[in-house]
Amino acid sequence: MTDAYTRFVRSAPGRTIAKQLGLPRPSRLLRREDRPEPVLGPVVVLGRSAGADAITSLLLAEGVDVRRRFDELRTVGSVVAVLDEVAAPAELGEILLPLAGAMRSLAPGARVVSLSRPATGEDPARDAARGGVEGWLRSLAHEMRGGGTANGVQVADGVPLDAPSVLGALRFLLSARSAYVDGQILTVDGAEGSAPADRSRPFAERTVLVTGAARGIGAAIARTLAADGARLVLLDVPGAGTELARLANELRAVPVQLDVTSAGAGERLVAQLRERGLVLDGVVLNAGITRDKMFANMTPDRWDSVLAVNITSQITLMEALIAAGDALGPQPRVVSLASTSGIAGNAGQTNYATSKAGVMAFVAALAERLRELGGTANAVAPGFIETEMTARMPPLNRELARRVSSLRQGGLPVDVAEAIAFLASDEAGGIHGQTLRVCGQNIVGR
Ligand code: NAD
Q1: Which of 144, 343, 435, 437 could be a cystine partner for 445, CB 3.0 to 4.6 Å?
Q2: Nearest residue by C-alpha to atom 41 in ligand 1
């Protein structure tokens, strides 16, 4: 799905006009079906630490073409900058500056990923270096061309660089599955998690519930998880029953018609799971609505309905699933849908932003609770995604929202689905309470 402006600037006359006027020209983003290889090579691993050696060995073991210098490489597919041992800002240049001379050799859709440690407040010089990595990374993401992205993984002290979630996050950020994740830093704070037995079907033998699954992002999540081997329980309101049944048939999934805001919805869901003998390994809390109005015109029904669907239902659903004792598997993965509006705020969306900021705080607290059970809770915050929800925006606002990201285009539902599939995977067991933005580095918020 390409918007009309993008189609125009990719046409021969449009290209000339856009060039002359200096208009943004969005690059085609390569996704899973366009770029089957998991890691675009050759990969240059920068850094001299033991961690850099370990990452090099692991990539080599997977058959990836790995180098430690740019040398005479004409094209570079990916760059991994390993900065885990930097002790002062003066040490950053030696590791990072070789990439400056190679920026023009980066392939279309290239990936740059930094591996570093978070500031701890213990050592001012070391924290300055660790914090500095974030500024470098976020600026580099703005400078990437050709649909390339730059993202980082921050690994808590004490967690080894070859922990499953570090490698999982690295693989995800190097792959085409992270096409619309840009300028983001994901924190790994635990050594939990495990690599899937079969990389082509990481959700084999796993059962995952997706709420709001009948269309849009929810349907894309269902399709992505099904392609990854999951058994699915797809939930939506009775009014979307026909669409839901069609998708459930297509994906051989179990449909559940339920309004998540109705009284006792959680208990009814638990009863349906028991009836079918289903235990959930993953829960994707995707059902959501917008009822936009400036706060001066906000009415109780607009306010209440948005909070009820977008956050209160998530709290009650999770309470019921946890309380049931037999509804969740041994290492449950919960992924919720936040929004960049919840991070930066947005005029006309006080109700929506309240609910979505609530989601981020909710998953952080839920993560603590689920950690005791061996589980995780995280969120994704989509920016502008092309769905029926955003198709209803006023045309000018919609056009602007598409262009204010580093990738100069809206994302697709599948981009959000891919990030959710990663966070819901066994491999992401060391990632707790995070919100990962899928926004093409939209300029709103941090
Ligand atoms: P959508 O409106 O296309 O789909 C939402 C689905 O949720 C629908 O199938 C709807 O029937 C279902 N739903 C709504 N109320 C429900 C209820 N009470 N019980 C059960 N199901 C219910 O929306 P979308 O664009 O696919 O958005 C999906 C999620 O992503 C939402 O949480 C949304 O806030 C979030 N999000 C979307 C965007 C975007 O750009 N589209 C950006 C940020 C966040």
Answers
A1: 343
A2: 385
